[in-house]
Amino acid sequence: MPNIQIPNEWLSRLPKEMQIAELNSEVKCKLAVSDVHGVGVRAIFDIKKGERCYCRPNMIPRFYNIPFGSLSKLFPEVKELVLQRWASVVNGSIFCSPNDDAHLLMFINHSCDPEKINYDVVTDTSLRDIACGEELLEDYRMMDNWEKVRPVDKNPWLNN
Asked: How many whole angstroms separate alpha carbon 65 and alpha carbon 93?
C-alpha cells in the first residue's frame, strides 16, 4: 500500500509521546447512530460542563506518525477510532486525527428541548455535563435565519 501523501506542514512535529497525549486529551466524540435523526455525534468519555468537545474540525487537518506498536498507549476508545479509519497504520502509515477526518460538527443534531441541548457550536464546548455515550445536541434556532434553511413544517424532526 502506498504511503499517504500530505503537505509537510500537516504532519505533527510533536514528539511521539506528546502526539499520544494530544490525541488522548482531544478526541472526545465519535459518529454514531442518533436518537434524533440518522447519524449523530456521541461522547466517548464524560465531558464536563464548559470543556471543549473538539467537534469543530481544524481547517488544516493534523496527521500523526505514531508507530503501530505505540498505539497501545492511546486510550482504547481513541485507538479503536484510529484503527477503524486508518487500517494502514499497521504498516507504518501516518493517520489523521479522528477529530479532523470526519467533520463531526456537520453531524450534530438539533433539539428544541432545553434539557437535551448540551453543545454550543460557537465555542465548541459543552453547555452541561455530557455523559459517555450521550448524543451531543445543539439548538439550530440559535443561528440567524435558521428557519430559511430548516423550516419546521418541512423537517418535522426539528421538533424533537
From this structure: 7
Query: Coil, strand, or helix at residue 58?
Result: coil
What pTM was estimated for this model as a whole? 0.86
User: Which of 123, 13, 121, 104 has its CA nearest to residue 62?
Assistant: 13
Whether 127 is covered by a domain: the verdict is yes
Q: Give how many domains the chain has, as a whole number.
A: 1
pLDDT tens, 90-100?
998 999 999 98
- CA distance linking residue 95 with residue 65, whole number of Å: 7
**Per-residue pLDDT at 4:** 76
Tell me if 82 is assigned to some domain.
yes
| Burial grade of 10 (CB within 10 A; 0-12, 13-18, 19 or more) | middle
Q: 119: domain range? A: 8-159
Q: What is the CATH number of the domain that holds 126?
A: 2.170.270
